Amino acid sequence: MKLCLEADCRAMSAAAAQHAAASLRRIIDEAGNARLVAATGASQLEFLRALTSLKDIDWTRVELFHLDEYVGIPESHPASFRRYLRENLLDKTSIRRYHFLDGTGRAEEVMRDVGRELSSRPIDIMFAGIGENGHLAFNDPPADFETTDPYILVNLDEACRRQQVGEGWFAHLDDVPTRAISMSIRQMMKAKELLVTVPDARKALAVKAAVEGDITALVPASIIRIHPNVTLYVDEPAASRLERATIDQYRC
């Protein structure tokens, strides 16, 4: 694992965007197209703004996959991740091929159909974040590290749901769905490259547990340390609980 530390969210997002753009250009040059999984949420907004402002990425050659989505939320809802991806990625690029998770219908069919497309060829690069409770995608602790299904139906814990309220996606805890479709941990680990961006002091304890603690289903994000090609971008507030020796050990 490589850890890249920047002063604040804007600097971190800009550095991560340059990294992502370079990876996408290289993949497209070598393979002709790139298969991408993009994360959503407040922590990804500045990164996606920076990335979509960069030039010389042939987005027509990028195929996009959806990481997770609430069950029961229509795309018109402000918290819908389909809406988020459309507004913050699709509408700002020329991506033509994308696979959304629609949680308003039969979730099992959606997981099967999108999972079949996802599994047909390797994912080249995945963008991800880390939740306040250490989750990856919507894999809350204790996460399922064993299932080989591409997508799974998960129950959202209270800490995860409170984060969604705290970030302004919902007005009240009771408004937050209790179930979601999420890419599984094993499927996420199959991506050839992981680019994880984590700003904000409220994520500091989760970053510390993921980077310095045991690799355990109780801290789902800790699993990234076994990936052969992962870069973790953090700003100083998010890294504030890390030991200096840890930063020096993993520094990019």
Task: Explain what this protein looks like in three dimensions.
The protein is globular. The protein has 8 helices and 10 strands. Strands 1-10-9-6-2-3-5 form a 7-stranded parallel sheet, sandwiched between helices. The model has no long low-confidence stretch (mean pLDDT 96). It has one domain: Rossmann fold. Helix 7 links the parallel strand 9 and strand 10. 33% of the residues lie in helices and 18% in strands.
Topology:
Elements: E1 2-6, H1 9-31, E2 34-38, H2 45-52, E3 62-66, E4 68-70, H3 81-88, E5 97-99, H4 107-119, E6 125-128, E7 151-155, H5 158-166, E8 179-183, H6 185-189, E9 194-198, H7 204-212, E10 230-235, H8 244-250
Parallel strand pairs: 1-10, 2-3, 2-6, 3-5, 6-9, 9-10
Antiparallel strand pairs: 4-8, 7-8
Helix pairs in contact: 1-2
Features:
252 residues, alpha/beta, Rossmann fold, 7-stranded parallel sheet, 3-stranded antiparallel sheet
What is this entry, summarized?
With 252 residues, the chain is of the alpha/beta class.
Indicate the structural class: alpha/beta
Mean pLDDT rating: 96
The CATH topology comes to: Rossmann fold
Tell me the helix content.
Answer: 25-40%
Number of helices: 8
Ranges where pLDDT stays below 50 over 5 or more residues in a row are none
* β-strand amount: 15-25%
Main sheet specs: 7 strands, parallel
Distance between the termini: 9 Å
Quickly count the domains.
1
**Helix and strand string, N-terminal first?**
EHEHEEHEHEEHEHEHEH
Strand arrangement within the widest β-sheet reads 1-10-9-6-2-3-5
Name of the CATH class: Alpha Beta
Cα-based radius of gyration, to the nearest Å: 17 Å
Q: Specify the overall morphology.
A: globular
| Strand elements, count | 10
**CATH hierarchy: architecture:** 3-Layer(aba) Sandwich
